[in-house]
Design a protein that fits this description.
With 311 residues, the chain is α/β, with parallel strands linked by helices. The chain folds into 2 domains: 84 residues, no CATH class; 216 residues, Rossmann fold. 36% of the residues lie in helices and 19% in strands. The protein has a 9-stranded mixed beta sheet. A 3-stranded mixed beta sheet has the order 3-2-4, with no helix packed on it. α1 runs antiparallel to α2. The two termini are 31 Å apart.
Length: 311
């Protein structure tokens, strides 16, 4: 896929109806040869719209108007490119726990959670957040995670989690202001509710930090999984992570995780983690596939805002 096509698809499939600002930026970049040539100097894995826009936001640049964004990006490209080369889109969206909850509560309790691509570990606390599925409310406190669930009964209980750990090439620390600033920068500009949710979830994590290990999803997963308490059900999970992993490495990971004890929950794009016999997605908008042990269950939206169950 060309860089222009990548930005066009981000604007029309991911940002449309979700972030008008990023839709405008993406479409403008897709037509701008100067910006496309600058982005083309980066490794393919660093050419993502989310990464570029997040870095510009982190540096204090404008993302609300394409002309101002272009002027700033061209003028400051060396600094922007350096940041993009060292960072990854570690969007740590606690809202995705609302997608995981129906599966987690179905599994034998208690649970030992191990997240691959954990970032700062905000998705390791599904038992500590509150949820709202339409009129159905579950849990207490903050943040409250809203999700429209179609085709599945909302969960009636929270999971029991006795161990939580995360694996990431670059773990983030919610108590570090610089790390928290990067997590904030990856949130789309109009989403004030997600920034409030980030702060609330970060407070939960800071009160009882998880075990976060710097490591590779293949080389270092078995040793970390072996630390889970044997009396708990091990659940290895990941959400919107594998698109950053080369295809052969994805396959090696899938082969590895299938051989571990316990269960495997994946929430990834259908072209990133392949499944046979998927039904048609509910719209042209970007959707992930929620799967348990390789069996697809539902179409989900990227920030946890909705799910359509078919499994």
């Amino acid at each position: 896929m060309t860089i222009a096509r990548r930005y066009l698809e981000f604007g029309t499939r991911e940002a449309r109806g979700v972030s008008p600002g990023y839709e405008r930026l993406s479409l403008a970049v897709s037509r701008d040869d100067v910006l496309l040539n600058l982005i083309g100097t980066l490794p393919r894995a660093k050419q993502q719209p989310n990464l570029l826009f997040g870095v510009v936001r982190l540096l204090g640049g404008p993302v609300d108007e394409p002309a101002a964004f272009r002027e700033y990006t061209v003028a400051n490209w060396p600094v922007i490119a350096a940041e993009m080369r060292t960072r990854a889109t570690q969007t740590n969206e606690a809202g995705r726990c609302a997608l995981l909850l129906p599966v987690l509560t179905f599994l034998p309790q208690p649970l030992a959670l191990l997240e691959v691509g954990a970032s700062a570990g905000l998705c390791l606390y599904p038992d500590r957040y509150a949820y709202r599925y339409g009129d159905h409310r579950l849990g207490a406190g903050a943040p409250v995670l809203d999700c429209t669930a179609t085709g599945v009964a909302p969960p009636t209980r929270l999971p029991e989690v006795v161990w939580r750990a995360g694996l990431d090439l670059n773990p983030l620390d919610v108590t570090d202001p610089a790390d928290l600033a990067w997590l904030d920068a990856t949130i789309w500009p109009e989403h004030a509710y997600r920034r409030a949710r980030l702060r609330a979830a970060a407070a939960v994590v800071a009160a009882e930090p998880p075990l976060l290990v710097r490591g590779d999803l293949v080389d270092d997963l078995p040793a970390l999984a072996a630390q889970a308490p044997p009396e708990a059900t091990l659940v290895v999970f990941h959400t919107s992570v594998l698109y950053q992993v080369p295809a052969p490495r994805r396959q090696a990971f899938a082969d590895l995780v299938r051989g571990l004890p316990g269960h495997w929950i994946a929430n990834e794009a259908p072209e990133v983690l392949l499944h046979d016999g998927l039904p048609e997605p509910p719209s042209d908008a970007f959707h992930n596939v929620l799967a348990l042990d390789g069996r697809p269950l539902a179409w989900t939206r990227g920030h946890g805002q909705s799910m359509l169950w078919f499994g």
